[in-house]
Structure to design on (930 residues):
């Protein structure tokens, strides 16, 4: 399948566009414009509906994407659902835009002019008309079509420049004449047309072009032609030698870029972003680009490589200066930096002012009207940079470990933060350096990428070590990196601090304030993947506002990464380095106290989340901790906290048991049980509960042991290990009876009923459930009584006793509603819909199913919402309401596709004949249940 954007938007198979007009084509265009990247749901909704939003935009979007996938048929899997949006994954050869850009990039890299001309001509053949044509008027078209047209014009201008150099000026005059009329304010086209006409011997026509654009600029924009046009006009008017053939003196055209890296690999997405920032020839303002990121991430390598790729667009020269912002010694003073630059462009010592302001003014004067590239490497901060900025016409490319936010705010700099290399690009870098051995050992290369955490400097050092012993096995090299300290030792260098990982990290660390450095050391002791502000504040024993300011300093200096809002993480190698410092500088009792506060904070947050997700009151006491936990005030925020923390909860449980915080640990395991259980994360649940059980056994806490066995049983049940689940629940029941805890006994009886029901042991399931119901009623806790009633109703349903299931299920549903457990109420409604459906009570069944769908949608339980929608569709179909059933199924399918749930394929298979027949596509919209 081929995709087209550079003309009518199409997905073409056998010369036929398979995507009908309408919103599906808009979604396709939005995804293709950012091919191989995630497009957020908000962006897609904005593209589809600028103002007149449907009642349920998310569901409508899911429907549109599902229809688009159906239209793409065998290529449907190229559209994947991501956590926050959708992505289309395609080979560059499938999309005309990517082919065009790739070929233009190849041309820019090519040194041979005739070959460059052929490549640019090939690139321009991808264009079939106006970009994004055939789409309805929308912000998507308005925002992107002009930019695509700009790319085409730039390619034409590059091609015309080479053709003039190759004396092909006569053949390009007609096209340039047409384009100059279509884009009357584009000065670069006018320059090329004047040169082509002048080189063709048509001096009068060349002068006419100048007068025409000068008049247009004055009348329409109130400005004069730029310096390039004026200079060329003077040359043509005076019959001077054309500008393109004149030799300039070398000392006024500095060529100072460091040697390009021949093995440069990857950074495809970053290079594409940088390419969009090159100023047009007629664009007067200075363009500032700031690359930031941690030490060793490859900022300088990327900057130098890209600068070489665009240097031909800066004919007045390229300047390079190392500002020594981070490294041995002091940063270079701005005054000395300007003096170095002025000397590079031919200014003598006698002409250079002595004060900073005077030097800065002279630099702006000398660079005025010139098109130069300034690469300012390793900057310390924005104040060091500002005096070096030219006034107009040039591009300033800066690298720094600091984010230089001030330049963004005051000077409008474009900031690009570099992260570690993606795994594929990191593997390519290792393979390029190591050679054939890497290709023969893909597993070792994958391990090496993981241990170097994608950090380019670490990858290059490791690859260089591999080349020292060409006969050694790469598996042995990976083994040398097995320990954390071994990693830093392995990635060290005795003769060059700039290629020693510890030295590179130390330059950033020693520039921190004492408070920020202390927080960084504590963060390195946290075993989780990332951390939020409340937990970090607990570690540091500071207020959240104080901690947030320090975290911001660490982000600004590239010590931490901030990939998700409110979450902070350390690069693995940086974590290892800072953990060494923590062991060296922070006494054990200080680290232990910080970790105790951290575990307590997680406990308090889990306790705050639990009642929103679990009916019934907790059976144990929780001490109030000193730290401020997460702000959790409803079921959505409770669920979001669990989803955000994920495997961190396992790490905290293991940390607590390893540190001997036993009372905290078993209570945390109990409080955190509900999140992994609701998310079906059975291995996480098992590991947390095993840690809690061990802690409770060491502490002699029988109630903690009982809950630990019950939690482990729940994990086994979820994973399908029914015999192990029953054994653990029986251990829990024995302990609850020993300590006289009726609520715990009832909960365990419910669990036994559930796992026996799973195993098909219905009689035992009913007996356990009924015992739980009697026990719960005796305690007077309606939430727990509701759960027992629900379990009994499930068993009666399995036994085919539908009338009894309705009676008990109705009781459970009312109790769940009474205690405000809406998710559990939705489960009971689902049960009642099934029972009523089996009894032939269709209206009652459909009403119950609709109510379940509405609750699931309101609570954000999308997986269960899809189940309820599928059930609703089945019930509607059973009474012949096919259109409504189709709508419910289609909405369920969209949700399952979004979640990446395998159940989507099962549902799609059920609806396969209907979808192939085309009846699903024209459905007017999703079933609106909210």
């Amino acid at each position: 399948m081929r995709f087209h954007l550079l003309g009518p938007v199409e997905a073409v198979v056998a010369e036929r566009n398979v995507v009908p007009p309408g919103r599906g084509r808009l979604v396709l265009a939005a995804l293709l414009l950012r091919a191989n990247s995630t497009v957020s749901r908000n962006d897609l909704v904005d593209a589809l509906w600028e103002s007149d939003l449907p009642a349920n935009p998310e569901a409508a979007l899911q429907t549109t994407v599902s229809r688009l996938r159906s239209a793409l048929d065998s290529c449907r899997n190229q559209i994947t659902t991501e956590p926050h949006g959708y992505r289309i994954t395609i080979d560059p050869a499938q999309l005309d835009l990517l082919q065009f850009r790739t070929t233009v990039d190849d041309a820019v890299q090519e040194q041979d002019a005739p070959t460059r001309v052929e490549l640019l001509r090939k690139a321009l053949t991808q264009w079939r008309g106006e970009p994004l044509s055939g789409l309805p008027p929308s912000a998507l078209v308005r925002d992107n079509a002009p930019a695509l047209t700009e790319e085409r014009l730039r390619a034409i201008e590059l091609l015309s420049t080479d053709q003039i150099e190759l004396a092909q000026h006569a053949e390009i005059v007609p096209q340039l004449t047409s384009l100059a009329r279509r884009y009357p304010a584009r000065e670069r086209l006018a320059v090329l047309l004047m040169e082509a006409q002048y080189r063709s011997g048509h001096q009068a026509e060349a002068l006419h072009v100048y007068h025409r654009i000068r008049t247009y600029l004055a009348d329409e924009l109130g400005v004069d032609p730029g310096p390039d046009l004026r200079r060329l006009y003077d040359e043509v008017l005076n019959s001077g030698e054309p500008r393109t053939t004149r030799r300039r003196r070398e000392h006024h055209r500095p060529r100072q870029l460091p040697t390009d890296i021949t093995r440069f690999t990857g950074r495809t997405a970053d290079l594409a972003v940088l390419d969009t920032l090159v100023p047009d020839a007629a664009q007067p303002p200075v363009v500032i680009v700031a690359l930031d990121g941690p030490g060793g991430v490859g900022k300088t390598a990327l900057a130098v490589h890209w600068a070489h790729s665009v240097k031909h667009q800066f004919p007045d020269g390229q300047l390079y200066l190392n500002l020594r912002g981070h490294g041995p010694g002091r940063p270079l003073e701005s005054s000395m930096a300007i003096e170095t630059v002025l000397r590079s462009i031919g200014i003598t010592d006698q002409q250079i002012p002595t004060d900073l302001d005077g030097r800065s003014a002279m630099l702006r004067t000398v660079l005025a009207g010139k098109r130069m590239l300034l690469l300012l490497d390793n900057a310390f901060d924005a104040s060091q940079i500002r005096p070096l900025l030219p006034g107009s016409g040039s591009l300033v490319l800066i690298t720094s470990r600091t984010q230089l936010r001030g330049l963004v705010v005051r000077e409008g700099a474009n900031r690009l933060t570099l992260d570690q290399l993606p795994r594929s690009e990191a593997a390519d870098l290792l393979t390029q350096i190591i050679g054939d051995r890497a290709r023969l050992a893909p597993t070792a290369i994958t391990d090496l990428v993981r241990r170097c955490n994608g950090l380019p400097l670490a990858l290059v050092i490791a690859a260089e070590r591999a080349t020292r012993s060409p006969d050694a096995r790469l598996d042995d090299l990976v083994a040398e990196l097995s320990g954390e300290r071994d990693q830093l030792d392995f990635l060290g260098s005795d003769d060059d601090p700039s290629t020693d990982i510890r030295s590179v990290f130390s330059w950033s660390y020693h520039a921190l304030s004492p408070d920020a450095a202390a927080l960084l050391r504590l963060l390195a002791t946290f075993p989780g993947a990332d951390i939020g502000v409340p937990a970090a504040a607990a570690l540091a024993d500071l207020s959240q506002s104080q901690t947030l300011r320090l975290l911001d300093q660490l982000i600004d200096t590239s010590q931490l990464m901030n990939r998700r809002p409110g979450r902070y993480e350390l690069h693995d190698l940086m974590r290892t380095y800072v953990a060494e410092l923590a062991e060296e500088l922070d006494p054990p009792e200080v680290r232990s106290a910080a970790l105790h506060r951290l575990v307590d904070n997680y406990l308090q947050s889990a306790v705050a989340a639990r009642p929103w997700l679990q009916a019934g009151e907790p059976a144990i006491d929780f001490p109030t901790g000193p730290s401020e936990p997460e702000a959790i005030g409803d079921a959505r925020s409770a669920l979001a906290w669990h989803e955000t923390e994920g495997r961190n909860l396992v790490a905290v449980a293991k940390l607590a048991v390893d540190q001997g915080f036993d009372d905290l640990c078993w209570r945390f395991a109990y409080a955190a049980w509900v999140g992994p259980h609701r998310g079906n994360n059975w291995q996480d649940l098992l590991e947390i509960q095993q840690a809690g059980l061990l802690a409770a056994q060491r502490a002699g806490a029988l109630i903690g042991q009982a809950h630990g066995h019950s939690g482990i049983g729940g994990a086994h049940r979820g994973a399908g290990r029914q015999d192990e689940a029953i054994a653990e629940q029986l251990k829990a029941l024995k302990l609850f009876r020993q300590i006289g805890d009726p609520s715990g006994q009832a909960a365990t009886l419910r669990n036994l009923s559930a796992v026996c029901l799973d195993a098909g042991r219905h009689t035992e399931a009913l007996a356990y459930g009924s015992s739980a119901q009697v026990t719960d009623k005796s305690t007077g806790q309606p939430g727990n009584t509701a759960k027992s009633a629900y379990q009994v109703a499930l068993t009666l349903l399995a036994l085919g006793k539908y009338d009894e299931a309705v009676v008990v299920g109705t009781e459970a549903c009312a109790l769940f509603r009474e205690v405000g457990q809406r998710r559990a109420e939705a489960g009971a409604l689902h049960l009642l819909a099934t029972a009523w459906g089996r009894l032939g009570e269709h209206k009652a069944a459909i009403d119950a199913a609709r109510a379940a769908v509405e609750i699931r949608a309101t609570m954000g339980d999308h997986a269960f919402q899809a189940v309820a929608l599928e059930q609703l569709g089945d019930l509607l179909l059973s009474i012949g309401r096919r259109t409504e059933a189709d709508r419910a199924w289609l909405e369920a399918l969209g949700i399952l596709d979004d979640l990446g749930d395998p159940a989507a394929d099962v549902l799609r298979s059920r609806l396969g004949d209907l979808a192939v027949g085309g009846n699903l596509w024209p459905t007017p919209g999703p079933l609106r249940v909210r």
